[in-house]
Amino acid sequence: MDTTKLFQHGTLALLVPGLLTGTLTMKELLQHGDTGIGTGEGLDGELIILDGQPYQINSRGEVKVVGDDFTLPFANSHFADYQPLMTVENASKTAFNQQILALSKLDNAFFSVKATGTFTNVKTRAVAKSSQPYQSLAETAKNQSVFTRDSVQGTLIGYYSPQLFDGIAVGGFHHHFLTDDRSFGGHLLDFETVTGEVSVQPFSTLEQHLPIDDPDYRAHDFAEDNIKEDVHQAEG
Q1: Which CDD domains does its entry note (predicted)?
Q2: Which of helix, strand or coil describes residue 91?
Q3: What are the C-alpha distances in Å from 161 to residues 52, 132, 174, 198?
């Protein structure tokens, strides 16, 4: 079990033109980690993996455990070995991200962040599953549901990618969220404050896995796509 390696299936760039076919099963993903995030085929909701258990937050806001045969076009996973970084009190999302970078000094590394505690005015989202023929990421992401909670106890799992790799992943932070009672979560759009414990896990190795068995992926010309702008618009 290598805790210094981040596994990534697919790239966010391949989602931009609508390459949304599930090309990795959850069973396969869990062989590479017990913690992670991702999305299902056709952008079917938002995934967060905690302690080896994969949860899907769908476009109706329901939280469900998904089976081994659930397929994903994009996902990150790793084996958790977080190290304590800081305690925060009433930190805004911006301050939270800034403090992590200032203390960890990992601006040019891939790392994961985990925060547990109380989050206020939380806003998450999940996209409704689309079917073939798939539209672009920008078009598909318009059909999303946004959920809010005033104050919840939960866990944030996020990944930070260096700007050098923007497009492969989101340059900067990409956070997902799940409450302790497993009733609310999704892609974390915003929160007002967080009070709790923050830990990080840096990775010296990125294992980039590509869906080379997918003929649509192999045939696509990414030179025609506006990758960075569309990724940041959809993931912001």
Answers
A1: acetolactate_decarboxylase
A2: strand
A3: 23, 30, 8, 18
Q: How far apart are CA 77 and CA 95, in angstroms?
A: 26
pTM of the model: 0.95
Question: Is the Cβ–Cβ distance between 73 and 211 less than 8 Å?
Answer: yes
Measured CA to CA, the distance from residue 112 to residue 132 in angstroms comes to: 33
Nearest-angstrom CA–CA distance, 76 and 203: 12
The number of CA neighbours under 13 Å toward the Cβ of 172 is: 9
Q: What is the mean pLDDT of residues 209-215?
A: 96
3-state secondary structure of 15: helix
Q: Judge contact between 127 and 146, C-beta under 8 A.
A: no
Q: Which helix (H) or strand (E) holds 79?
A: none
Q: What is the pLDDT of residues 169-190, one digit of tens each?
A: 778 999 999 999 999 999 999 9
Residue with tokens 């980039």: 208
Domains, the chain, in order of start with CATH, read 5-235 (3.30.1330.80)
The answer to whether 52 touches 174, Cβ cutoff 8 Å, is no
Q: Quote the CA–CA distance of 19 and 233 in Å, as a whole number.
A: 17
Cα 170 to Cα 161: distance, rounded to the nearest angstrom? 6
Question: Which residue, among 137, 141, 144, has the nearest Cα to 227 in the 3D structure?
Answer: 137
What backbone torsions phi and psi does residue 48 show, to the nearest 5 degrees?
A: -140, 130
